[in-house]
Amino acid sequence: MASRIGVQSLLSGPQLLATSLATTRLQVRHGHRLRGKAPGVAKTLEQRLAEERAVDPEVARKVNIGYPHLKPARSAQLKERLDHLKAQRSNPELEKLARAKTLTVDPELVRRDWLKTSGPFHVQRLAEHYGVFEHLFGAAYFVPRVNLKVAFPTNGGELASPVYYGNVIKPSEATSEPDVQFDPNFDFKGSESKQVGGDSWWTLVLTNPDGHFTESDKEYCHWFVANIPNGDVAKGERIVPYLQPIPPKGTGFHRHVFVLYKQEKKLDFGEYAVGEQDRTDL
């Protein structure tokens, strides 16, 4: 019995020593004592970031608040393409100009075709890139269906500062109301505009999501024109008079977004009207 106990003690001694050394190696590495859970047990940085950034898919789901995109019938598209090819092939002058390298293409026709096909989706992606939907509508978005032509006049009255999709305009170039034009008869189907009966009503807003310095989730309204009849912005009601962009020095570029809303009927915006002198909270 004594010999067995001695043998067991001799065998357990190295095991205890090895366990003690292993524990020491885990707790001390290069002279620094480890804190927290041991490697392999603690969560990695990637796992912890994934937990912090986890969002409810129902809450983060994007909602389309715009008009749906209704594609023309496939047969109509095919017929239009065939007619276009037939017209080109029956015109010998096009081939002569192409061979002589003197054929010119009207960019306005290209732009018109672009706006009818993939243009609205390109504009949507640009708006997402600049964070327009996120900072103005949260989880909502829309595909712009009506093309806006915006240009700021100079002191001489000429339209010298057009607004595109993210170009830079100096405050000195936007001192007065811009000239805004759009097609009020657009049928929201991607086809050519058609004259519709009755009046159409619209609302145009110029907002600055970077202009509020006390609350980051608010914006500053620079222009609010409501009840625009048949696309004539000059005849709309000035709910908020035009205010020239005034970004303070050192705040970087400010996004100024033109948003056009389609009204079902003429609305009363009297309670939101702001006078020329009342601009304390826009």
From TrEMBL:
A Pfam family: PBP
A GO cellular component entry from the record: mitochondrial large ribosomal subunit
Main location: mitochondrion
Keywords: Coiled coil, Mitochondrion, Ribonucleoprotein, Ribosomal protein, Transit peptide
Compartments in which it is found: Mitochondrion
Keyword Kinase in annotation: no
Family to which this protein belongs: Belongs to the phosphatidylethanolamine-binding protein family. Mitochondrion-specific ribosomal protein mL38 subfamily.
Protein name: Large ribosomal subunit protein mL38
Organism: Culex pipiens (House mosquito)
Taxonomic placement: Eukaryota, Metazoa, Ecdysozoa, Arthropoda, Hexapoda
